[in-house]
Amino acid sequence: MVRQRYAESMLSTRAQILDAARRLFVRQGYHGTSIREIAEQLGMTKTAVLYHFPTKADILAAVADPFLTDLEAALARVTTRQEVFEALLDVHLEHRTLLRDNVIQELTRLAQAPTLRRFTELMADANRIAAGPDPTLAEKVRAAQAIAALSDPVTAFADEPVDRLRAEVLRGVARLYAE
Fold first, then answer.
1. Does one domain contain both 67 and 23?
2. What is the pLDDT of residues 23-64, one digit of tens each?
């Protein structure tokens, strides 16, 4: 019982740190936010934050992790072009505030190796699936254009009703393949 409460407290503290960090990253940017400010938001010491996350980059990676985990899971279950478009769009819609708030852009600007590499590999997998087997250059380009077209509307219109936004994005992507 004591171990369980301790574990729940640790998870709760980590979640609180991530929530405070995300809010500050949105307001001030990653580089404009210090670990001290994150700690102050929570009434903690800087050392307490560093106990849970040794670096600010670790905090950013943890903020992005649910998005990347969902991308991995989505790509693991798709085999066709349409499935990859729908699965990626659903992940983008699920994490639309993270995308809207430019947290992923902060991650790519930071170029934090393992997390950025994970994201890059996932996008390469999505492009490969969307392009199909033995694709021509034209098919590769069209797939890359379609994959890229999934996130920007979600970011730009994150507050729109999800069902309508999803339908419009998929309609736009389909137009890329209309002959």
1. no
2. 898 888 888 899 999 999 999 999 999 999 998 888 988 888
Q: Whats the size of the chain, residue-wise?
A: 179
Same domain (yes/no): 44, 89: no
Rounded Cα–Cα distance for residues 149 and 81 (Å): 14
14 lies in the same domain as 29: yes
* Separation in Å, CA 128 to CA 40, 62, 64, 68, 150: 45, 27, 23, 18, 16
Q: What is the pLDDT of residues 12-21, one digit of tens each?
A: 899 999 999 9
Cα dihedral: 57, 105, 137, 140 (round 10): 90
Q: Which CATH number characterizes residue 26's domain?
A: 1.10.10.60
User: Which among 103, 76, 102 has a CA at the least distance from the CA of 88?
Assistant: 76
3-state helix vs strand vs coil in the chain, percent to 5: 80, 0, 20
In order of 32, 126, 144, the CA distances from 58 in angstroms are 16, 26, 30
Backbone angles phi and psi of 30, in degrees to 5: -60, -50
